[in-house]
Amino acid sequence: xxxKPKGYSxxxxxxxxxxxxxxxxxxxxxxxxxxxxxxxxxxxxALSSTEAEYIALSRACQQAVWLQSFLTEIxxxxxGPVTLLGxxxxxxxxxxxxxxxxLVKHIDxxxxxxxxxxxxxxxxxxxxxTGMNVADVFTKALSGTIHAKMVGLLRLYRAxxxxx
Length: 164
Fold this sequence. Notes:
The chain is of the alpha/beta class. The protein has a single domain, classed as Ribonuclease H-like superfamily/Ribonuclease H (Nucleotidyltransferase, domain 5). It is built from five helices and five strands, in the order βββαβαααβα. The chain has helices spanning 49-73, 89-96, 101-104, 113-119, 144-153, and strands at 6-11, 23-30, 33-41, 82-86, 123-127. Strand 2 and strand 3 form a beta hairpin.
């Protein structure tokens, strides 16, 4: 556990029954505790789960770059890339490979921001098993058991439990 930020990203696909837009979520940890998180509906409908996850990764990447900048500003400069974890192999491969042009040519330019940051080494994207992706809690309804597991992984406790 260090002060280096580590992020988890996730998305549902077409989860809003009215608009069919997806929800992106991310959470960043430092020293084992969550320091930044978000859950937000995507601005347009994604044509596939891979696209929805790719957009979620790009939003998380923007936060990763901001966190890195903030840490530098307060003299906690971090060497090396911020690790960003996602559970969709297709979206992860899109962050590194621009050869699949037909699959991504319709995606908004701002969502390709992550490719630049991966190419420059500011962010490293890796895969994590879905069951260990704590960002799931920000994007979809979970069973009670899985929700409790994710809350534990997020290190959230009731005040009366004295989790600190």
